[in-house]
Amino acid sequence: MRSPRIVIVGAGGYVFPLRLCIDILSFPELQAANLVLFDINAANLRRTYERVQHVVANHRLPACVEMTTSRRKALRKADYVIVAFQVGGIEAYRCDVEIPRRYGLDQCVGDTLGPGGVFRGLRSVAALKAIAQDMHDLCPDALLIQYANPMAINCWATSEMGIKTVGLCHSVQGTSAMLIKRAGYRYEDVSFKCGGINHQAWFTRFTDKDGNDIYPKIRETMLRQNPSPFEGDGRNGRRRNGKFVQTGAEHHVDDDVYYYERVRTEIMRTFGYFHTESSHHGSEYTPWFRKNPQTIEAYIKTRWDYFLISSGRETPEQQRRLEEMTHGPLQCSEEYGALIIHSMETDQKRVIYGNVPNDGLPGSKGALSISNLPANACVEVACLVDRNGIQPTLHGPLPPQCAAINRTNINVQELAVIGALTGDRDAVHQAIALDPLTGALMTLPQIRAMVNEMFEAEQRWLPQFK
């Protein structure tokens, strides 16, 4: 086997870059890989480097591990480029969430849509543009594996730059496992079909090993477990527990905080289908669940605030996690990244869910993976992976009501991409004005004032808007 050159951009992250390296090294065919760790923060980079080196030494692997703060040095002759950064770090993220809160818009995450997601996208695309220019020069055939949010905006923009890109998330795996377990089935005995956009892809089919439709059982289970807080006498809407609970970055199907599902179940009650991102995230992408504190309290059991979680990375719990990963066995997680690299290197065929251009079907000019979503959108669909790379599959049309909800989000994504690539401030104002939650809470003059304040606060990370 050859030794692929795998570059991790943003390798100074606290946990995830180490997780990616362990996933890669868990495959014998990849244990001689050249792992190149790149970050602009030298201290954080060295922390990850030393832990990866310990894993390699502990398991006596032939892998070569490099670290560098030079992007061009890292990308030279790369086979795979994994992006896992957060441009601007906690300082920029604070602006994403705290400025909108002053205007009455409370984002519990703020990394995918809305003002927080759009501005994170603007910062990310500025960095991705420089990476793409170097990739065209130094590794034009490399695959860019995108893990950074906002996934759809980032992948859409990178594809526009002419870079082979796939965006990866774990929401399909996590949500499908949660639904299947709650309905009383074993995961390995159930097949499903899913498609849409990142953080809002729709499960349209569940069947057991005999081909029987088990979606009715899943619907019945979720509706029974998650009654609407505003039906009946209204008692379901009263606050149960308002304290903030910090949880880890990996979510287990039994996590009652992360998988408290009144929001997604309420959406399913009206629109018929369950979607992929948690109720915390999902409450931000529609106009119905974050109108006022009372509604938020009725639908969200315990506040899950990702900004606070991100601000408290170096907790004893996180330290224990890092130690367990560093000294533990080589086991692959649910993430798709290492699976893709292994399939492309060995030709072992796999199906993963990836974020890809809707018009990216191999050998099918003009055909779309999801026929009732825009051709230029970034969609999340099943993809075949082997030595030929990422090959999106034909999903077919979504139920029209599900496609309609997706299109409200795609409107924001498209204008955010235009603004990020061209430096058009008007496109950014328009993107955020079209965000469903922002539009439900704020007037157009308020939105203009908020966006201008965010531009001023984040100017140093937005070189395209000089």
What topology, given as strand order, has the largest sheet? 3-2-1-4-5-6
CATH superfamily assignment of one domain?
AglA-like glucosidase
Number of separate helices? 18
- In round numbers, the mean pLDDT is 92
- Note the gap between the termini: 48 Å
User: CATH class of one domain, anyone?
Assistant: Alpha Beta
Radius of gyration: 21 Å
Number of E-state strands: 12
- Helical content band: 40-55%
- Describe the global form: globular
Low-confidence stretches: 233-249
Give me the secondary-structure category.
Answer: alpha/beta
CATH topology of one domain: LDH C-terminal domain-like
Describe the 3D structure.
- Helices cover 44% and strands 14% of the residues.
- It is an alpha/beta fold and 466 residues long.
- The chain has a domain at 5-169 and 325-392: LDH C-terminal domain-like, CATH 3.90.1820.10.
- The chain has a six-stranded parallel β-sheet with strand order 3-2-1-4-5-6, with helices on both faces.
- The longest helix is centred in the first third of the chain and has 25 residues, at 114-138.
- It starts with a strand and ends in a 9-residue tail after the last helix.
